[in-house]
Amino acid sequence: MLQLSASGLGCVRGSRSVFDHLNLKLSSGEALALVGPNGAGKSSLLRLIAGLLRPAAGRIELTGGAPENTIGEQAHYLGHLDALKASLTVAENLAFWIRYLGGDIGSLRGALASLGLGELADLPAAYLSAGQRRRLSLARLIAISRPIWLLDEPTSALDAAGRERLTELMRQHLAGGGLIIAATHGPLGIESRELRLGGPA
After folding, report:
1. 44, 41, 48, 42: which is closest to 6 by C-alpha?
2. CA distances (Å), 161 to each of 82, 108, 114, 184, 201, in order?
3. What is the DSSP letter of 94?
4. Phi-psi domain of 64 (left: phi exceeds 0; alpha: psi -120 through 50; beta: other)
5. Is 135 exposed, middle or buried (0-12, 13-18, 19+ CB in 10 A)?
6. Are strands 57-63 and 31-35 parallel, antiparallel or unpaired?
7. The pTM is what?
8. Residue 31 half-sphere exposure, CB side, CA atoms within 13 Å?
9. N or C: which terminal CB in the chain sees fewer CB atoms within 10 Å?
10. Closest-CA residue to 169 (of 135, 119, 126)
11. Closest by alpha carbon to 135, among 82, 186, 95?
């Protein structure tokens, strides 16, 4: 069983203390929703867990995972920006991430189909709508298996059908023993605990 924990965690951006003395614990099959006003540190906490920022204090630990890999190497981090190259097709963009992150190229078509992008595989990403771009970013979660999903406003730009697809994918991930930590301003559509940052929204 996986267990992700943080104790006494502090984050400083510039000269501002974003949060301090933060503790959390999450086990296989559990989801945590990070809520709070803009600037409260939701995105910063995700980036700390992903290893993209260094904590000012405290520590983050993962037990039950692959000890030879960092937490970041066992996590998908989905940020605000969709990391896509406009001149590449939908399939080529996902193929890049599969190769870069060490996934199975055979999973590409199924991942696109699961996000409703199968018929757009040969379309340049420049022609995608904002919602389609978001779904292509989400396809990485399916194409490359990693136990920890760190999602920053994952429903951003998604229509109702896209949100339903995402909800089902998150449920499947949790049912398979994965972990999800998501920064959100609205309901995730899955059973989750809540961690409020920065006081009342």
Report:
1. 48
2. 19, 21, 12, 18, 28
3. H
4. left
5. buried
6. unpaired
7. 0.93
8. 23
9. N
10. 135
11. 82
In this predicted model, what pLDDT tens digit does every residue of 20-72 receive, in sequence order? Answer: 999 999 999 999 999 998 888 999 999 999 999 999 999 999 999 999 999 99
- Measured in residues, the chain has a length of 201
Task: Give the C-alpha separation, 38 to 40, whole Å.
Answer: 6
* Structure confidence at residue 199 as a pLDDT band (50, 70, 90): low
The per-residue pLDDT for 76 is: 95
- CA–CA distance, 79 with 134 (Å, rounded to integer): 10
Does 201 score more than 60 pLDDT? no
Cβ atoms of 90 and 128 within 8 Å: the answer is yes
Contact 49, 37 (CB under 8 A): no
**Residues 72-112 pLDDT 10s:** 999 999 988 888 999 999 999 999 999 999 889 999 999 99
List, in sequence order, every residue forming a beta bridge with 150; answer none if it has no partner: 77, 181
pLDDT for the residue numbered 51: 94
Q: Tell me: domain 3-84+137-196, CATH 3.40.50.300, correct?
A: yes
Contacts of 192 (CB under 8 A, 6+ apart): 30, 31, 32, 33, 180, 182
Residues 120-161: tens digit of each pLDDT: 999 999 999 999 999 999 999 999 999 999 999 999 889 999
